Amino acid sequence: MISNKVYFNRQTVAQFEIAFGSIAFVCLCWFWYSSSDSLSISTADQIPPVIEHVDQQIQIPKRSAKTQQLSSIPPLNERQFYDLSYVVVTGDSLETIFKKHQLPITELLEILEADEPYLFLDVLRPGDQLRFRVDKVRNRLDAFSRVLDPSKTVSYRRSDDGFVYDEIVIPTSKVAEVTRGKVFGSFYVSASSSGLSDNSVMTITQLLRSSLNFNRDLRAGDHFQVVMERETIDGRTIGKDRLLAARIYSRGKEYGAYLHSDGSYYDSNGSSLVPALLRYPTRQKFRISSHFSPRRRHPVTGLFKPHHGVDFAMPTGTPVLSTGHGRVTRIANHPYAGKYIDIDQFGSYSTRFLHLSKILVTKGQRVQRGQVIALSGNTGRSTGPHLHYELHVKGRPVNPITASIPMLKSIPDSEINNFRLQVADMQKLMVSDESIVQLDSPVTNESQTDQRPDQS
Where is the Opacity-associated protein A LysM-like domain (predicted)? Predict the structure, then answer.
């Protein structure tokens, strides 16, 4: 009886345990499900921002410091600039001017590199106008310019590869101005008193001195007539003058000089008055190491630049000759051109000699054809001893080996009739009542371009 009761109690307890366990399991399952659902909802609420943040990181990569710096700079047309103007005074140099305005010397060197084929910045004159344009955002020079004369400004503008040369040319008009006068005392004093410049008087004297002795032949009362070509802007002369014709009456005889279309002067019969130019600037011919070319790869920099002269390979110390009669207008020592000389020859001709080792003339000195003016060398930026020789006609570089140059000749028969008509027009103007006559339409940029040569 007792054992049955004990068995019954154990069985009952076991049933209760099973029932309680089942209930507990059900409750545990319900609680787990509820907690899991709640956790899912909470997690779902938190996931989107994380995913959105990840998406933003994928779509917008992190930028470098350089990219952020570039993005902070506005486009070119939105940059802010300010302009500076400066008038050169005695003692100034480009280096001192740049330092005075707190501009980097490295940018000056880049500008001089761009000016290498032209040498417009090599010599400054008191009164020259300089202009600077400064980029305020990048704190650097954006452009630099120099006013050469009222009709022309040269500019050096920043590009991706440094500074590049540019020029601004204002069209001009040409007029013929007639000067008439009588000789009292010397011809120089009489002509200067009538309004002719020193250069004009000197040109007339040089042209006519082979046939007229200005010291002995001229007498008081002899008279002269001169026609000068002058360039103007809005009716004002700009200092660019050229002799068109001149004649002097002395003791009943006429002495005249007339400019022909070839740039040389002749008498009224067509015989040349301009001393001949030598083809080569040395006594013997040397090998040409680099020819005249509008586009040549520079042997030092590797850049393509105009080469407006001819290079003659020769030993250092070779005598260099003036190729014609003229006046020395510039002597300088350039970091790229080295020691060099500029000479103005007769009429529209001028010459230049670069990379010299020694200069034997002075500025303003008059030289004769064949005179030794320097010794060749290897100064400046050069790959070896040589002479760089240039010839300019009306300010434009020409090939000195092939160009037509004065050779003490007469005007060809095919051109003599046109020349005689031109002489007649000049003589008619000389005796007319006119003082100023319009010559032509405004001069174009192309005809005014005055390029300067390379130095290599």
Answer: 85-162
- Please say if the pLDDT value at position 454 is more than 80: no
* Distance (Å, whole) CA 296 – CA 305: 5
Q: Identify the H or E element spanning 232.
A: strand 223-233
Question: Is residue 449 very low, low, confident or very high in pLDDT (cuts 50, 70, 90)?
Answer: very low
Domain coordinates of the chain in residue numbers? 76-169, 173-274+408-448, 288-398
Q: Hey, what are 309's tokens?
A: 């002269």
- Hey, what are 63's tokens? 């930028």
One fold for 76-169 and 173-274+408-448: yes
> Which amino acid type is present at position 268?
S
Instruction: Provide CATH code, domain 288-398.
Output: 2.70.70.10
Tokens linked to 391: 């010839």
Domain 76-169 has CATH 3.40.190.10: no
The predicted pLDDT at position 291 comes to 87
In terms of Cα–Cα distance, which of 68, 186, 149, 87 is closest to 395? 149
What are 74-103's pLDDT values in tens digits? 555 556 888 999 999 999 999 999 999 999
| Distance (Å, whole) CA 275 – CA 283 | 18
Task: Give the best-scoring range by mean pLDDT among 12-16, 208-212, 371-375, 406-410.
Answer: 371-375
Read off the amino acid at residue 296.
R
Topology of domain 173-274+408-448 in CATH is Nuclear Transport Factor 2; Chain: A, (3.10.450)
For the chain, counts of helices (H) and of strands (E):
8, 23
